[in-house]
Amino acid sequence: MTGPTPFDDRYDEPDQLRDQLRRILRHRFLIALGILLGVFGGLVLSVQRAHTYTATSEVLVRSTTDPFGTVGVAADNQVSMSTEQRIASSADVAQRAAYILDRPGSQAGTLGARVRVTNPQKSQVLRFEFTADSPQRAARGANAFAEAYLDDRKDRNDAAVERATRALDEQIDVLNQRLARDKLDRVAAKPAVQNQLYNLQKRVLDIRSRDTDGGDVVRKATAPDLPVGPGLRTLLGLGLVCGLLLGIVLAWVRSALDNRVRSVGEAQAALRAPVLGILPSDDGGDDALLTVGRTDAPRTEAYRALAFRVRQISGPAGPGQVLVVAPRRAGVAEEVAANLAAALAEDGGEVLLVDTAPDTSGLAAQLPLMPYEAPTLEEAFLPPGSVLVDAGVAGRLAFAAGGTGSHNTAAGATGADRVLSEPGSSTVVVTGPFLTHADALAVAQRVDGVLVVTGLDGTRRDDLRQMQELIGCSGGRLLGAVLDAGRPRRRLRALRRRPKYGPASRADQAAMELPAQDGTFTISRR
């Protein structure tokens, strides 16, 4: 169970929608990318449709029955418009249209794909919409399909008349032969036969006298003035809206998959511990590791505030032994440990900075070590092997290296016990990355509290959860976290010049020599 944190997330709101919006707005690059893609798509679509035109012609389909003799028959039942619509879209009509447009028959399929035939509801009108790359071709195509459909329907009507009259002509021929035979036999022609012959002839005459035209063109296509579809402004607006939606979706997916610590609340939820300090950016400063007592930058004031909160949560006995450790990179943890020790020394009391890394980390080479002087009465109790560090106006603090030069956990723990067993009111311990060096867990079990240094936008929440579980299971006490919100460029330059964990270099060995048997020590400044 953790106590209240002195820091609250500046976006801490109970409204989940506002929190989700904050997560999405972190990925502004993806939102901008989606907007650019949408606008580009709208521009491409407008350019593609800029050379596409559609012309429309309409045909009134005429019924094949006698309009004056269809009493009691509804106009809708005289013509099947769904059938005529399918016929107008058929390959035969496309072949006729290709012939009218002086196109080879092989292009009939291409022309058929460009035409769209519709039938307005409750009407006997067919609408031909033809699309082409120029206004004139669009108008010619629409008129050609209307003409081709009328020609096809006229041919079908003529064929129907021919089929109907062929059977009647055969019956008339039979009756004429019968009348001629009766006349040769000098038999009086029966009136019934003559009436039947008269009716058949009249019926043939009625069928052939009917108009077999398929219909009338009620609207002739003309060349359109504007291309098909919306204009440039409309397409750009639609592309902007669609791109914004795409960017929001991409940002939401990215935020859902993002595992890095982005806020105070996420760090507290992963560690189950309060955030005791936020280190701001300090790009104007130099590359010096120790800034407390030497500069008055905002980052220095953040270290002083961190020292105050560490004393506050530690109780009246003081902070005791505090381990400052990072999940995977120890560079920022060394900076925080050194400046925290200087800030604690500035408040008064004896402070010891201990480097328990199994290998030399180069921390001694970056601290402003003081040349050897005879220890004062206040400094006489310092543990053997420790040296003084000049923290400027903050005063002095002691530095000791508890490393053993081996990655073995037991050996690292023995070195830590040797240094941490020395008396002292405040001890700040720094070690290698917690998740990559096994000795860090052994040190965490022997100190009074652990302070985790994590970087915003650089540390994974899974690493913090793993640290919380390991420290809790080992019996250690997790004091809280320190969030580094500064830009890492300045510190990365310093880290590149800093030797990695490995065998100690000659410069590091010469920077601090072990004390002699009488308890004195020498310091070499190079």
From TrEMBL:
Which key words tag this protein in UniProt?
A: Membrane, Transmembrane, Transmembrane helix
Name of the featured protein:
Lipopolysaccharide biosynthesis protein
Instruction: State the SUPFAM superfamilies in the record.
Output: P-loop containing nucleoside triphosphate hydrolases
Taxonomically, the superkingdom here is Bacteria
> Which organism is the protein's source?
Streptomyces aurantiogriseus
Answer whether the UniProt record assigns the keyword Membrane to this protein.
Answer: yes
User: Where are the bilayer-spanning segments?
Assistant: 29-47, 235-253
